[in-house]
């Protein structure tokens, strides 16, 4: 259900007041700072990963397994952090002016239609159906969606 004109006007007033009160916080809500910091973290994780490779190879060449293990752990941790940051970056809102389906951008903030984004969920009618019936229904729906 879309917002009424009055609700949109009130929302815009609140956004302007927030920008005037705390521009840094408003910038964070827009996602620009989050995107930039996520990009920096991903680049730093990549550099540390390369450093971990160097430490691992040094341990192998020097025939010191402890150094090699430390290098591997550095690589593992940096890869985990880097992938987490990159996955989180996908969920950040698009730049101002662009919009995803079901969203409207106003004043740099993303307003999600009704608080829900993405595909609408199918209604479930599970009253009286057993677990196996629901699993069979799910399996049938997957096969239909994939064209089998």
Automatic annotation (TrEMBL):
Segments crossing the lipid bilayer: 42-61, 67-86
Sequence segments annotated as region (Disordered): 90-148
Feature: compositional bias, Basic and acidic residues: 133-148
Keywords attached to this entry: Membrane, Transmembrane, Transmembrane helix
Bias kind Basic residues: ranges: 118-127
Domain of life, source organism: Bacteria
Pfam family, one: DUF3040
Stated name of the protein: DUF3040 domain-containing protein
